[in-house]
Amino acid sequence: MPPGLLEQFTKETGIKVIYSTYESNETMYAKLKTYKEGAYDLVVPSTYFVDKMRKEGMIQKIDKTKLSNFSNLDPQMLNKAV
């Protein structure tokens, strides 16, 4: 994450981001399991871990209608995420 990016985001949107990292998918998974539901808005697991989390109901679909710039995303990248 580039330095200053989160501060700039907060300045432009008024939304304060709490940014945390994890050493491995297993660490991230353990954090998610121990915190209450909704404690995290966004996580970025490795591809192979997404299936495990999906099967356990830990991942929600994104409502694309709420993303005003969704049309700016690269369709080739979106197809890889399916």
Q: Which helices and strands appear, and what pairs or packs with what?
A:
Layout: H1 5-13, H2 25-34, H3 47-55, H4 75-80
Protein name: Spermidine/putrescine ABC transporter substrate-binding protein
GO molecular function: polyamine binding
Keywords: Periplasm, Signal, Transport
What Rg, in angstroms, do the CA atoms define? 15 Å
Class by alpha and beta content? mainly alpha
List unreliable stretches of 5+ residues. none
Query: What characteristic shape results from the CA principal axes?
Result: globular
What is the number of helical segments per DSSP (H or I, 4+ residues)? 4
Number of domains: 1
The main sheet comes to:
none
Subcellular location: Periplasm
Keywords: Periplasm, Signal, Transport
Protein name: Spermidine/putrescine ABC transporter substrate-binding protein
InterPro entries: Sperm_putr-bd (IPR001188)
Which features characterize this protein?
mainly alpha, 82 residues, globular, polyamine binding, periplasm, 4 helices
At a glance:
The protein is mainly α and 82 residues long.
What does this structure look like?
This protein has four helices and no strands. The chain has one domain. The model has no long low-confidence stretch (mean pLDDT 87). The radius of gyration is 15 Å and the shape is globular. The chain is mainly alpha-helical and 82 residues long. One of its GO terms (cellular component) is periplasmic space.
